Amino acid sequence: MSGIEILRPEAHVAEVWLNRPELRNAFNAELIAGLRAAIETLSVDADLRVIVLGGRGKAFCAGADLNWMRAMADYGWEQNRADAQALAEMLWAIDACPLPVVGRVQGDCYAGGVGLAACCDVLVAAEGVQFCLSEARLGLLPATIGPYVVRALGERAARRWFLTAERFDAARAQALGLVHECVAASALDAAVGGIVRALVANGPHAVRACKQLVKDVAGRPIDATLRADTACRIADIRASAEGREGVRSFLDKREPAWKTN
């Protein structure tokens, strides 16, 4: 069993659940492979507009499974590299998913779990949830998750939390930029649901294009090449069927076609 549960609760929405609650949704090889396969399959589903990523039980994800860690302790370098590469590719599948991924963090989020959280486009966490980049305590480092977590926290904050392996709560995670919404546990589903509804209400191709735009322009100099590229992108979408329908529906004061199907 991969420890992954996939639900389709309503039109255009998929939920992917880490489902090893008795082990705090900790990673092992099967969970990593199952999560990557689930995201890659959903990524090419033309009917989908949003994926919600959550964890069953008390923890969102506690990092690596202890039994998996025991096995890795006996691995040689090549086995360790292959194992780490599988995790790296799973994280990349989430980050590269063309659909928006909304993270629902209801419980503790440690080590690799922080990497999952950092790969989500929108992250909602319950008040009091604890985050921890705990690898240094074990004489390790958060290497495969590092690019995503540094991007989410910023270099300055990452230096502290990577090096000290201290815990920080959801409110601090929000202040650092990792978490977008920090709400009472009782309000978590409502907050996630509101974000899902907002995403589903928007032009589905426009949402995907917006996600790609952020990736493509982040950190780039605003030079002639970038200015020309962005001008072409808006021209492309204005001339598209969805762009034309969106403008016409606004002018006609009616709902666009994508909200009625």
Q: What is the oligomer described by this structure?
A: single chain
CATH homologous superfamily of the largest domain? 2-enoyl-CoA Hydratase, Chain A, domain 1
- Count structural domains: 2
Report strand order across the widest sheet.
1-2-3-5-7-10
Structural class: alpha/beta
**What is the third-level CATH name, the topology of the largest domain?**
2-enoyl-CoA Hydratase, Chain A, domain 1
How many helices? The count is 11
DSSP strand content: 15-25%
Question: What attributes characterize this protein structure?
Answer:
4-stranded mixed beta sheet; 2 domains; Lyase 2-enoyl-coa Hydratase, Chain  A, domain 2; 6-stranded mixed beta sheet; 17% strand; 2-enoyl-CoA Hydratase, Chain A, domain 1; 49% helix; alpha/beta; single chain; 261 residues
Brief overview, please?
With 261 residues, the chain is α/β, with parallel strands linked by helices. It has helices at 29-43, 66-72, 77-96, 112-119, 146-153, 155-164, 170-176, 188-201, 204-217, 224-238, 241-251; strands spanning 4-10, 13-18, 50-55, 59-61, 101-105, 108-110, 122-126, 130-132, 167-169, 181-183.
